[in-house]
Design goal:
The chain is an alpha/beta fold and 153 residues long. It has one domain (8-147): 5'-nuclease (Rossmann fold). 54% of the residues lie in helices and 10% in strands. The protein has helices spanning 12-19, 25-32, 42-57, 63-78, 89-101, 110-121, 132-141; strands at 8-10, 38-41, 83-85, 126-128, 145-147. α7 (132-141) links the parallel β4 (126-128) and β5 (145-147). α1 (12-19) crosses α2 (25-32), α1 (12-19) packs across α3 and α5 packs across α6. The two termini are 19 Å apart.
Length: 153
């Protein structure tokens, strides 16, 4: 994967690949090495925590491993690996606008609209998502380079 635009927003599906070995994890990690323009949101952290809790419940990872991943993400934020964006009232209003405009034509989840609004208000140029519905809606917006390309059905 080649990322030419800057800055870059990582949604939860992308951030998870950097901490839990999944398909495309190595490719994404390689594409992001040395970058200092990566944005994530408070929503990304909450969704990642939810995904870790689900994997613990399902027995995919041990509880200690889940806690370790969670702590590592925060260490990486403190080390400046990511810029953490808050969800403000402006973010919510932009997400609601997206729900009422794009949501009329394509299915968009509330959390996805919050990711898109956060990225738009931060004026990012690239959005990385491995979530197909999010990819479709983000691509339809035309505001970002949406990666990776293409997302298989």
């Amino acid at each position: 994967m080649r990322i030419e635009s800057s800055p870059v927003y990582l949604d939860t599906s992308a951030l998870a690949k950097l901490y839990v070995q999944e398909t495309d994890s190595d490719e994404l990690d390689s594409a992001l090495v040395g970058r200092h323009d990566l944005f994530i949101s408070e929503l990304t952290l909450t969704e990642l925590t939810s995904a870790l809790a689900r994997r613990i419940r399902e027995g995919v990872i041990e509880a200690a491993a889940g806690r370790s991943i969670y702590q590592q993400v925060f260490r990486d934020i403190q080390a400046g690996e990511y810029r953490l964006l808050d969800l403000t009232s402006a973010t919510h209003r932009e997400a609601e606008r997206l729900l009422l405009t794009i949501g009329r034509h394509a299915p968009i989840r509330a959390a996805d609209s919050l990711h898109l609004a956060t990225a738009a208000l931060a004026e990012v140029r690239a959005l990385i998502t491995y979530d197909r519905p999010m990819h479709v809606v983000a691509s339809a917006l035309g505001s970002f380079d949406v990666l990776p390309q293409p997302i298989p059905p």
